[in-house]
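User: quick one, sequence for these tokens?
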């Protein structure tokens, strides 16, 4: 078919309740789509300017530049000081509902210590003992 025999035609297409009307001529279409001499549809020109790199190559390794790091706001919270009691145990024992103690010094809440001190293998540890045991 040569260019002289191609007549102008109008085509109406309905897709999902949207009607599109195209006029086809020998030089292309009048709906904003341009074709070259071979009849191939050409895309519109891209905007000028340098795009952000999406891939970078460093020392032969391909990678992503990653996102910009943002500094996290620093939240300084006062550490809550728990009240603890030091006890010394001569055995490793687990007590359901109360917890467990290992042989040596254990730091417990006052409620737990009150329960453990009822057993014969535990006793209160003095501050001097604790200092001597944990000072290297």
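Assistant:
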């Amino acid at each position: 078919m040569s260019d002289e025999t191609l007549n102008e035609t109008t085509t109406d297409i309905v897709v999902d309740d949207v009607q599109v009307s195209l006029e086809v001529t020998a030089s292309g279409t009048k709906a904003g789509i341009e074709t070259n001499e071979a009849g191939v549809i050409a895309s519109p020109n891209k905007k000028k300017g340098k795009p952000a790199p999406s891939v970078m190559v460093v020392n032969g390794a391909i990678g992503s530049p990653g996102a910009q790091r943002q500094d996290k706001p620093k939240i300084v919270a006062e550490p809550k000081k728990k009240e603890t009691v030091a006890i010394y145990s001569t055995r490793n024992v687990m007590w359901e509902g109360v917890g467990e103690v290992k042989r040596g010094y254990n730091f417990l809440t006052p409620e737990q210590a009150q329960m453990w001190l009822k057993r014969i293998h535990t006793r209160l540890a003095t501050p001097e003992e604790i200092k001597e045991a944990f000072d290297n």
